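Inputs:
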Amino acid sequence: MTAHLPALQVVIPLLCAPLCVLLRSRTAAWLLFLTAAAASLACASVMAWHVARGEVLRYAMGGWRPPAGIEYVIDKANVPVLILVAAIGLAAAVYGRRSIAAEIEDARAPLFYACLCLNLTGLLGITATGDAFNAFVFLEITSLSSYALVAMGRRKRALLAALQYLIVGTIGATFVLIGIGLAYAVTGTLNMADLAQRLPELYGNRALAAAVIFVFVGLAIKMALFPLHAWLPDAYAESPSVVAAFLSATNTKVAIYLLLRLAFGVFGAALVFERMPVTEIGLLLACLAMLVASAVACFQSDFKYLLAWSSIAQVGYIAAGFSLATADGVTAAYLHIINHALIKGALFAAAGIVVLRLGSARLQAMAGLGRAMPWTFAAIVVAGLGLIGLPPTAGFVSKWVLAEALIEDGRWAVLAVVLVSSLLSVVYVGRVIEVGWFRRPAEPVTVAKPPLSMAVATWSLVLLSLVFGFAPGWPIDLAEGAAAVLVGGVE
Amino acid sequence: MTVESAGWASPDAALALPAAVAVPLLGGLAVVALRRRANLREAASLVAAVATAAIVLSLWPAVEDGLRLRMWDWLPGISLVFTLEPLGLLFASVAGVLWPVTTLYAIGYMRGNLQRNQTRFYFFFALSIAATLWIAFSGNLATLFIGYEVLTLSTWPLVIHAGNEQAKRAGRVYLGLLLTTSIGLLLPAIVWTAVLAGTTDFVPGGILEGKAGTAALTVLFALYLFGIGKAALFPFHRWLPGAMVAPTPVSALLHAVAVVKAGVFTVLKVSVYVFGVDTLDVTGAAEPMMWVAAVTLLGAGLIAVTRDDLKERLAYSTVSQLAYIVLAAALANDIAAAGGALHIANHAAAKITLFFCAGAIYTATNRTRVSELDGLGRTMPWTFGAFLVAAVSVVGLPPLGGVWSKWLLLAGAADAGQTVMFGVLLAGSLLSLAYLVPIPARAFFRPPTGRPGDGEAPWTVVLPLVLTAMACAALFIGADAVIAPLNEVLESP
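Outputs:
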């Protein structure tokens, strides 16, 4: 049984998707998604326990031996992402029942859950696989289901957002495919470990350089790295609440993971960061992302758009970390992947509750929220402080680790940009808090209490971000383990 | 969790450190739980305040043992640590003892002025005290930074308590300046220290000796001193006069004692336990900041003379007096550092009295301007008597506590051979004479203008200010008890 876990955690959600469609019942579909997420989390936890003891789990799909067959490799570099994705999936399942009931009509609900299952499948697949082409396939599964999910948003603009996302996302996926194809052309293999062995002989090959560029640009689109971020604000802000919470916490993060895996584990740091100027380009784009996106976030009048722009800025922090290509830098990036997923997931979840009860997430409509919805507002405040990176929240810990990595590398200018971006986040988070707390609403707002399941899901993410701020030993260990595997090479 | 103790005190005594932080926190939660029953709610505040004061004072016998409580590993290579040492305990005692007095005063003031949102007020007040004690007992810079930021955030709702446009604008300046300096300057300074020294622990003699060149240390020291915005050095002082829109008990305890003293306390901690007085002295890394402190000291004093709003004048006086303590740190010798530490206690007792008086005048007569106070001394003799006592203590004349800290500061400046600073200190005292003493003089000696007052404010308002005025006098007699343990830390390498 244990031997099959790497495959099971992907196969269970994959099988749940058609079942959702076949059963045609809202409750059954919800139960299936819940089961899929819970089962994936269980699989990931057991695998994490094995990996923590120093094992590397390898699974040959269908019994075909690698490198010809598809291989799944579970090691310290991807097990934290698996846990993260599955855990956020579980939170989204708990949160989603009432939220989806309010936003999606009965006929479409099973299809909606099927898309969620497929999305989860894709994310887990990208993370678990040790095969470059297989990773592309799962990337497409994730993307296609995301387009459908975004299109189900409550406003007509959601369709436009989905179309924009589809066009840009397809370009990104194609670039990734071209890149992987080029790598295949020069080496004749798609297995990541095998690629990593054969590529060093080919350093200097033009086709290989082109492969790196295609893969990186494609994934930069998928992770919404400035200036390839244009699809993100609309896609997140217009999508249904549960989708915004789930995608913001997982989609860009998994794309970043794939980039890390391909950069360090396949192409090799010697090629990417020494022969090619990825460090300089990455740091430059990261700085621009932090400054521009944070500044734009300050001027948003809609809470969900504000959060989306802040996400683009936070991707900049992560990019700054891994562009350093040092163990400390990758640790910082990895840690921020985990911490920001929790924080932003919590914030979008809280925004979903606000939309459910007030009918809008415009800041103007949020006046007096502190009195009308004290618990939801408190969740926004605490998670917002995490976004700024104030102690003792998780955001502070990752910022500390990032600052240490930047100082050790002597990147003072980047450090200054990180700090300026944090100060801008004080402005945009402060605006939300001031409106919710101290602006009197035009007419007194009385709203029903938020559904318990949604509040519980939101608060469990908030509390987890606090725990990871006060006692960050576990996430830091995970991030350091991942960085050791990545920077030290696959084996 | 591990406890380290250098002396005979039982290791369990170290648990009093987190307890001292937890009690105000629990008090705050009790306030929220009892929000529908005003009398019980205020009782909860008082009980928590008295208990906190008792716990903090009970730690004095153990202070020489240097307790260290290591909670758990927090950041890479850095643990969450609480320590007990004289400087921290002095600061904790000042905040802890003045809290019950202020609570008594706040009950009278908030009810007398029919303030709204009192539950929120008392909750965030308790949270601020918890953060202050956290700062006082922090064993390293990273731990301290948590308390520092929590203190900023928990005092913000108190600053904008009134909720009107002026309060909100002041709140924006408050958060903006304090967070900008702490995130933009203090945090990088702390991380840089961690990278240079491999630790951020407070160690007698400092942790940076020989870890960096003079230029780097000079920049780092400037980052710290400007980054600790709560110390209100020019040009980052604007938040403090703005914060005076808060209810008077907040101005009194938080913006004359807890918040600003947390700033200068951090400055002293950084100078004594991170850089080390000797390192600062040998490298001269503190020299530039000494001049910034001197400019602040005189500049704020000059501004105070021109202000007619009583609370604003007191706020600028606070900026000036804080610069004394920063200057003490920058003079980089143990005499001045002891003077700076003592000035934390002296200025706290005196300035809280002055603010209590301002609040009492407002409660009794609704007056806020210095020019409106003529002749009020006859109807409010206790209030203005206490004002005079505190003013004389700030100026630094016997027989009040302020004389000792000014004395030590002058001795420290002389010892460092800084004749200019010697003059600056004297000029600052003359300025404080000019902006404080005329106020009680007008009240007592000028004929009343307009409607005469109706007498003193309620007793819960007057009693605390008499008590704190007496504390100013007690600090004259008992100064030695405070200095002795401080000297031991400062003189031992």
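Remarks. The CA atoms of residues 410 and 425 of chain B lie 7 Å apart. The interface with chain A takes residues 72-76, 142, 145-146, 149-150, 153, 157, 160, 163, 168, 171-172, 175-176, 179-180, 183-184, 187-188, 191-192, 194-195 of chain B (CB under 8 Å).
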